[in-house]
Amino acid sequence: MITLIAAVAENNALGKDNQLLWHLPDDFKRFKNLTSGHYIIMGRKTFESFPKPLPNRTHVIVTRQKDYTPEGCIVVNSLTEAVSVCPKDEEVFVIGGGEIYHQAIGLADKIDVTKVHHHFDADTYFPEIDPKLWKVVSEEFHPKDEKHDFDFTFTTYERA
C-alpha cells in the first residue's frame, strides 16, 4: 500500500525555500508514529531538508543526480524505481516534496494529510485531492493552543 503523508495549508502550500511554513509538534508526533518502521520515499531536496536521516525508517531518495550516495539510504532515479525497491506487502510512505507528490498521487492507495487552517505564501504545493477519486475515512480537528499557532485537522483519505 502506498500512502502519501503531508502537512498542507488551505491553499495546498507545503513549503518555501525547502523549509516547512509552520511548527506543529502534534503533527510531527503523528508523522513519526505512522512512518516509523516503514520505507519512506522522498525527493533529494526533502531529504536534504532534514538535519540527519530520520530514525527507524528506510530512506528511499529519488534524484537525477549521479553519484548521490548518502550513507544508509537507497538512491534511485525515478518514482517507479523507488516503489519497486520497497516491500510489496507493507505500507510505504511518500513524504515529499511537491514534485514527488504530484507523480505519486496516481499510484497512492491512501493520503494522510494534516490540513493547516491558514493560507501561506509558498513555492511548493501539494496536488489537488479530487473528491471524485478520494473519500474521507477519518478526520480529527485540533484547535490552536500554546504549542500550535494554527488550527489543523488530521484527515485520512482512501481511494473512492
Low-pLDDT residue intervals, each spanning 5 or more residues: none
Q: Helical content, roughly?
A: 10-25%
- What is the fold named in CATH at topology level? Dihydrofolate Reductase, subunit A
Radius of gyration: 15 Å
User: Which CATH architecture?
Assistant: 3-Layer(aba) Sandwich
Order of helices and strands: EEEHEHEEHEHEEEE
Shape: globular
Strand ordering within the main sheet: 6-5-4-7-1-8-11-10
Question: How many angstroms does the end-to-end distance come to?
Answer: 15 Å
How much of the sequence lies in strands comes to 35-45%
**Total of DSSP H or I helical runs spanning 4+ residues:** 4
CATH class: Alpha Beta
Q: Give the CATH superfamily.
A: Dihydrofolate Reductase, subunit A
Largest sheet: 8 strands, mixed
Question: How many runs of DSSP E, i.e. beta strands?
Answer: 11
Please tell me the total number of domains: 1
Keywords: NADP, One-carbon metabolism, Oxidoreductase
Protein name: Dihydrofolate reductase
Pfam families: DHFR_1
Catalytic activity: (6S)-5,6,7,8-tetrahydrofolate + NADP(+) = 7,8-dihydrofolate + NADPH + H(+)
Write up what this structure looks like:
Pathway: Cofactor biosynthesis; tetrahydrofolate biosynthesis; 5,6,7,8-tetrahydrofolate from 7,8-dihydrofolate: step 1/1. With about 160 residues, this protein is of the alpha/beta class. It has a single domain (about 1-160), classed as 3-Layer(aba) Sandwich (Dihydrofolate Reductase, subunit A), CATH 3.40.430.10. The chain is about 20% helix and about 35% strand. It has four helices and eleven strands. The strands form two sheets. It has an eight-stranded mixed sheet with strand order 6-5-4-7-1-8-11-10, with helices on both faces. A three-stranded antiparallel sheet has the order 3-2-9, with no helix packed on it. Helix 2 (about 45-50) links the parallel strand 4 (about 40-45) and strand 5 (about 60). It is globular and about 45 Å long. It starts with a strand and ends with a strand. The model has no long low-confidence stretch (mean pLDDT about 95).
